[in-house]
Amino acid sequence: MATDTGNNVEPEHKITLRPVLGLIENLSKRDLEQITVEAIRTHRRLRDSAEARYEEWRSEADVRTCDTAGPARIAYVAAMIDMHAQQAALSTLLGVLGHVPSVPAD
Questions:
Q1: Distance between CA 20 and CA 15 in Å, rounded?
Q2: Structural domain boundaries of the chain?
Q3: pLDDT tens, position by position, 3-33
Q4: Using only C-alpha atoms, what is the Rg of the chain?
Q5: pTM listed for this prediction
């Protein structure tokens, strides 16, 4: 359940992906930081892709039938799911690492 703090709803606990924890448990901080930096870059690419799919969906006269949302919206939703799944993995890595590493813009 979430708690309400003013106008914001905050989760009571962070999402932690146990499989990720198992994979990284014996890595050095240096190795963990390298993996986290790559995860940040991946997240940025997925975010950019989702934004592009959103713009396509919003600007396109999407062909819709009564049984589908249309290909542009489906592409947007799929891109958002990919981005949010990556964000969960990235959040787990950042939680273990304990800081956000500096990652230059691509």
A1: 11
A2: 28-57
A3: 445 555 555 567 789 999 999 999 999 999 9
A4: 17
A5: 0.79
Q: Which residues contact 90 (CB under 8 A, 6 or more apart)?
A: 36, 39, 40, 42, 43
Secondary structure percentages of the chain, helix, strand, coil, to 5: 60, 10, 30
Q: Phi, psi at residue 27, to the nearest 5°?
A: -85, 150
Listed in sequence order, the residues at least 6 apart from 80 whose beta carbon sits closer than 8 Å to its beta carbon are 50, 53
How is residue 13 annotated by DSSP? S
| DSSP three-state, residue 99 | coil
Q: Which residues of 57-75 are buried (b: 16+ CB within 10 A; e: fewer)?
A: beeeebeeeeeeeeebbeb
Hey, is 70 helix, strand or coil?
A: coil
Whether 17 and 75 have beta carbons less than 8 Å apart is answered as no
